[in-house]
Design brief:
Residues 12-23 have a biased composition (Basic and acidic residues). Residues 1-23 are annotated as: Disordered. This is DUF3669 domain-containing protein. By secondary structure, this protein is of the alpha+beta class. 33% of the residues lie in helices and 14% in strands. It has one domain (9-133, 202-381). Helix 1 (63-79) crosses helix 4 (204-222), helix 5 packs parallel to helix 7 and helix 6 (317-336) runs antiparallel to helix 7. Bound molecules: adenosine-5'-diphosphate (ADP) and magnesium ion. Adenosine-5'-diphosphate is lined by residues 33-39, 41, 53, 55, 91, 127, 129-130, 159, 181-182, 230, 249-250, 252.
Length: 394
Amino acid sequence: MSSPPFQSAFEHLNEHEPREGPSRLARDRLEIIGEGSFGRVYAYVEYPWSASAYKVCIYPDTVANLLHEAKIYDELRMFTIDNDPSAFICPMVKQLHKPPQDQRLEATIDPIPDPAMDIFPHPTLQVSRVPALPVVLQQHYHRLFVSANAQNQAPTIRLLGLYLGMQFPEKINEFPQEFICDLPLDYYRYACLRETFQCLLPPVECIAQGMGRLLARMHWGVGIDARGVKLVLGNRFVGDELMCQCWVLDFNQVGGSDPHHADLQCHRWLVYRPLEDLRLDKLTDGMYKDDDLVSGAKRLALIISRQEFYYPRPHQTQLYWAFKNAYMREVQSLLQRPITPPDLFLTENLAGAKRWAPVITQAALAFFQELEADDDEKCRFYRSAMCEGYPADW
Ligand SMILES: Nc1ncnc2c1ncn2[C@@H]1O[C@H](COP(=O)(O)OP(=O)(O)O)[C@@H](O)[C@H]1O
Ligand SMILES: [Mg+2]
C-alpha cells in the first residue's frame, strides 16, 4: 500500500505537550464568542484576530467526538485552501486539550472556566479564530434588520450565518435561544448589505458558487454528509487589510460517535479519503454502508433540503444554478485534476478512477434530482397551504 499523498498536520498534534494552553490565561481575559448545542467557544479578548478559538464541550465525556471533529476540520482545510475571494475556508486545528484522566468533570461547565485548572475543565478543541466582521457592517446590520425595541437585547454580532436558502422576516423583533450567535444573512439581507459594502462583499452568485464547491469537497473529497455544518461570513486579513470572508465551521455532527450521547452519533458517508481508494469495491461507509453511491447521495440531498438552510433552493433559479454548476464542476475537477500536492490521484489508482468516475458523476446528479424533487414537493405544499388561508410568509 502506498503512502498517503499528503500528511495531515493534525496527525502529529497529539504527540505534543500543550504549547499555548489556556492555563496561562487570566479568567478575566476570556470571553464567550459563541455557543451551540455541543460546545461553548471562548477567545482571549486582547487578540481580536489571528488568535485561537477554544471550543469547550458542554458534555464532559466527548473526547472521541471532538477528536473526530478535529480530523474533519483538518482534512477539509486541505480542500479549502483557495485564493478565490468567494471560497469558503476552514479554520486551522491547533490542538486538542484532553482533561487528565483523574480529573473530576462537572456535568456542565461554568460560564467562564477557572484559570486555576490546568486546562479547560472539559475536552477542548483549539482552532484558529475567525475574525469578527467590521464594526461598520455590524452596525449597519443592526440598523437595517433589528427592530427598534429589540436593539437592547441584540447579541454582539461577530459572524453572520449565510442562509441563502431561507427567507427571514424583514426585522428581528426578539432574540430566542438560537440567535445567541451568527444572526442570519439571507439572500435579501445580503443584497441590502452589499448595496452599501460592495467593496467588502462579493456578489451573491459568487457565494452560491463557493457553497457549491465547498459542498462537493465535503461530500466527495472528505466524504462527510455535511450535517450540522455552519456556513458563516466573517473576516480575513489580506496583507494589512481586513476583507469579508466566507468560513465553514462545526463538524461535531458529521463524524465520530459517542456511546453516551447517541444523538451526537454520526458517521462519514464515504470511506476515509475516498478519492485515494478508488480501487475499493465499495465506497460508502458508516450509516450509509448499505447504500450504493446513488441511494446514498439521495439521502444526502434530504439532509440538505430538510435541515441545512445555508444552500440555495432549486426554486431560487439563478442562485441555484450557480450553486449546482459549481458543485458539478468541482466533482469533475476532484476526479480529474492533480491538485496540490500534485499526486493526489496516484498512478496505480487510475484504473479505479476510470471505473468510479462515471458512477460518482451519476450519484452527484442524483443528489440534485432528489434536491429538486423535494423542493418541488415543498413548493406545491406551501402553495396549497396558502390557498387554504395560511399567511403568505408561513
Ligand atoms: N474558530 C472560530 N472562530 C470564531 N468563532 C467561532 C469559531 N468556532 C465557532 N465559533 C462561534 O461559536 C459558535 C458555536 O460553535 P460551534 O462549533 O458551531 O458549536 P456547536 O457544535 O456547539 O454548535 C459558532 O456559531 C460561531 O459563532
Ligand atoms: Mg455542532
